């Protein structure tokens, strides 16, 4: 576990459209856990490190520990608003999936990672459903990519682009999570969306055991409050991206229709879901 300014930090990574917003809402019911929306900290810290490495003045007259001190101060400043009861902070950013070397410097040593995961085809279907719900604007970037690659702007091609290992919103995160897990398998816990929905109490107990906290008996799964909401329309031009239901229940996604039968057959559950073979 890592500690900074008297708070323990746990990274929340994994894949998109996997119930991560719901999980943070549930954990926020425990006042000892601060689980806000995603932070920009990793991007800021990576940019800082890159700029220092290229800066002539710093290369000519470097100062030991300067990067670490500035980076840790950024963490402390970002989380100054943590409630006074807070003991553990859930640092949310999927880019941490494969960045534990930086995490160990910033959050001290052996920070642990909770990864929210789900069938890859269901993730892609959730994106397609989101697009249907809010209109074409959510797919503007993928439409542009289709145009640049001279391929039709269809659900099948959108899903293929999502799953691209380099640039896709699903594939790139999957790839980084695999790499991170291979390097530090004992520091990762995978929470399946289906398991969280069907038996949230069991999955929450796994998390408490993993991060070394006593289980909070006050969790409830009806009339759930979303204490910390981000403006996803400003951030990603997507109004419904992080909206959750007030009750823990599975939403029908019509996976095969949304991703197309061809994509579903190419990416059936079991092809990508490596975490199901993990001995926890």
Write up what this structure looks like.
The protein has 280 residues and is α/β, with parallel strands linked by helices. Helix content is 45%, strand content 10%. The chain has helices at residues 20-27, 41-54, 56-60, 66-78, 100-106, 120-134, 140-149, 155-162, 171-183, 193-198, 200-211, 232-236, 255-259, 261-266; strands spanning 2-4, 7-14, 33-34, 88-92, 112-117, 188-192. Helix 7 crosses helix 8 (155-162). The longest helix is centred in the middle third of the chain and has 15 residues, at 120-134.
Short description:
The chain contains 14 helices and 6 strands. With 280 residues, it is an alpha/beta fold. Strands 1, 2, 3, 4, 5 and 6 form a 6-stranded mixed β-sheet that branches.
Tags for this model:
single chain, 280 residues, alpha/beta
Explain the layout of strands and helices.
Layout: E1 2-4, E2 7-14, H1 20-27, E3 33-34, H2 41-54, H3 56-60, H4 66-78, E4 88-92, H5 100-106, E5 112-117, H6 120-134, H7 140-149, H8 155-162, H9 171-183, E6 188-192, H10 193-198, H11 200-211, H12 232-236, H13 255-259, H14 261-266
Helix pairs in contact: 2-4, 7-8
